[in-house]
Amino acid sequence: MKSWLMNPVLNKEFKLRFRSLKSFLGVLFYVLAIGIIVIGMIFVQQLSSMGGVNPEQSRELFMMLSVLQFALIIFITPGLTAGVISSERERQTLNILLTTSQSSSSIIIGKLVSSVAFLLLLIIASLPLYSIVFLYGGISPRELLTVFALNVFTVFVVGSLGVMFSTFIRKTIAAMVTTYGVMLFLVGGTGFLALIATSFTQMSQTGTPTTNILVYLLAMFNTPITLVNLFQPSIGEEIARMSGVSFPLWIAHLISYTFIFITAIVLSVRKLRPKMKAKK
Amino acid sequence: MIEIIGLTKQYGKFTALDHLDLHIGEGTVFGFVGQNGAGKSTTFSILATLLAPTSGTAFVNGYNILKDPKKVREQIGYMPDFFGVYDQLKAEEYLDFYGASYGISVNERKKLIPQLLELVNLTDKRDSYVDLLSRGMKQRLCLARSLIHDPEVLILDEPASGLDPRARIEMREILKELKAMGKTILISSHILPELAEMCDVIGIIDQGKLKAQGSVAEIQEKLQGAKSMMVKVNRNIERAFAFFEDNPDISEIERHEDGASIQFLFKGNAEAQQQLLKACIMQELDLVSFAEIETDLEDVFMEITNGGMES
Ligand SMILES: Nc1ncnc2c1ncn2[C@@H]1O[C@H](COP(=O)(O)OP(=O)(O)O)[C@@H](O)[C@H]1O
Ligand SMILES: [Mg+2]
Q1: Most distant pair of Cα atoms in chain A: their distance
Q2: Domain extent for B175
């Protein structure tokens, strides 16, 4: 653990990133933007309902904010991470880094953490704004923490995919396109397929009730469904009914994405340096 | 100490390194010379554990590059032929980062970095951003970086390429200091004279094969200790050829296509050369000229790397 905190790559990247004024301005603008959205929405709701925001509206606001931030994370993380190794290769700094005695895992972890650190900072900085919503009730602290944890978790999983493609693909542009492509599939593709699978299930519902496990498997890999399910447990129940799987969807999501994360990290670590052992 | 055994590297069907064998003793400054594309960088990359060989292996201070790459990395300081630097990083921070990458403690780094900057004459640039330094300064900074973990072996791939003459001289001075520190240094160049002066041993590589290896003295002996001579005769070239061929001090004798000239390497001082000329006249060879021809290291290099086929 101590050696992770002493990670040279992490230290250097932190130094570079947080030295510039730009980073602080970035945080400031992000918080301001979210703040304006929150206050604007509260204002609109107050106008329309005359006299205070009721808990139900507050809850709606919270959900919208969460989805917004979530979309932002999925959109930004590939861009932050898909260049970490390939850009060093392109700028011819990778060779030197690889001849140091720093371990491959330390380099990969350092790169991942440092590249998403800024995004994590944004998420943390925007937490107080959520508490404005909090004031009007409608959500529990537990829900807030869960959303926060899911955000952070998603950043790391998407980030690990970015790092992996950056390690395997020589050109940063190609690595980014691939990462965005995979994310599009995980966010949109699985959702779309799940919908198709659902409609098949419903069509055959005329006779005996049929179940389709595919619905569950697809939903399990879909991050937005997991997020929305946090607020609307009925979705999970519906999926359980259609697929015949009653295992909690969010746990399945956690397991499958942890698996993706570990696989991506392990493959990156292995790929970073050449296998010196000659084949045969 | 470096031991290269049967090292082979293939890129697809192309053989970049062909069963290279090489032994480089401790404290030796080894010059690796070959034309562009000869396989120098490939060899160095493999030694630096950046590239896996197709077959064969190498040992650095007894550590096998295939089995103990991490140990090998600790033994060597490597400077690639082309490298980049991080922008927004100051010279001092640049060294600090790599120091940390070798697991050197903060306190030690604080002591070490000024010494290294001093060694490569960059003390006054410690607060400059590395991407703004001149090419020669970057090269020196990179050299300082490769020294940060006090490696016993230095692998420098064309450290003088792209430098102006002044920067070259500075680089050479630093290398002399490193040599005095007792480091084993491998240094490559596509220009032989550039290395001749500072290397103990030179290896000449061509198309992935080692063509010649020896001390600078040995290679110079081959050239300068043995002079290239050209003799022209008016007639009876057979008799002249036989005469020179019998002389034990004469080697690599060749007859030119013009049918009148003989070229050979003559090993001997001015006195011996005078005796040889005297003997030619006593033997009544039909000489019209007897002359040394200019050679330098570059010619030998060209001769070796072209396999004597062209020019
Ligand atoms: N990644 C690669 N793929 C294919 N061929 C390569 C690669 N790297 C080097 N080569 C070829 O291998 C040969 C040796 O290259 P190199 O070791 O860089 O030579 P040198 O450093 O002596 O100029 C060259 O012909 C080069 O074109
Ligand atoms: Mg080269």
Answers
A1: 78
A2: 2-84+137-213
The answer to whether residues B15 and B66 belong to one domain is yes
CA–centroid distance, residue B34 to ligand 2 (Å): 9
| Phi-psi group of A256: left, alpha or beta (phi > 0 → left; psi -120 to 50 → alpha; rest → beta) | alpha
* Residue B61 sits in the same domain as residue B142: yes
Separation CA B159–CA B80 (nearest Å): 8
B86 interfaces chain A, CB cutoff of 8 Å: yes
Identify the band that residue B309 occupies on the pLDDT scale cut at 50, 70 and 90. Answer: very low
A204 DSSP assignment: G
Is the domain of B287 the same as that of B145?
A: no
The model's pTM: 0.84
Q: What φ, ψ does residue A139 adopt, rounded to 5°?
A: -130, 155
B184, B213, B242 - which closes a domain: B213
Q: Which of B14, B79, B188, B204 to mutate to test the pocket of ligand 1 (most atoms within 8 A of CB)?
A: B14
Answer whether B76 touches A (CB < 8 Å). Answer: yes
Residue B108 domain flag = no
Task: Mark residue A208 as left, alpha or beta (left: phi above 0; alpha: psi -120 to 50; beta: remaining).
Answer: beta
Is residue B27 classed as helix, strand or coil in its secondary structure? coil
Average pLDDT value for residue range B197-210: 89
DSSP A84: T
Chain B residues in contact with A104 (beta carbon < 8 A) = none
Residues B245 and B174 occupy one common structural domain: no
Q: Is B58 in the pocket of ligand 1 (CB under 6 A)?
A: no
Please give the structure tokens belonging to residue A18.
């947080």
C-alpha B226, offset from chain centre? 21
Contact, A81 vs A115, CB < 8 A? yes
**Distance from CA of residue A21 to its chain's centroid?**
26
8 Å CB contact of B51 and A274: yes
Q: Give tens-digit pLDDT for A4-29.
A: 567 899 888 888 877 777 778 888 88
CB-CB neighbours of A55 under 10 Å: 11
Question: DSSP of B139-179, one letter per residue?
Answer: HHHHHHHHTTT--SEEEESSTTTT--HHHHHHHHHHHHHHH
For residue B9, what are the β-bridge partners? B17
**Which of B55, B66, B82 is closest, CB to CB, to A92?**
B82
Q: Helix, strand, or coil here: A279?
A: coil
User: Are A156 and A187 spatial neighbours (Cβ–Cβ below 8 Å)?
Assistant: no
Q: Which of A3, A20, A100 to mutate to test the interface with B (most CBs of B within 10 A)?
A: A100
CA of B37 to the centre of ligand 1 (A): 5
Averaged pLDDT, B171-175: 87
Q: Which residues contact A87 (CB under 8 A, 6 or more apart)?
A: A166, A172
Q: Is B83 in the pocket of ligand 1 (CB under 6 A)?
A: no
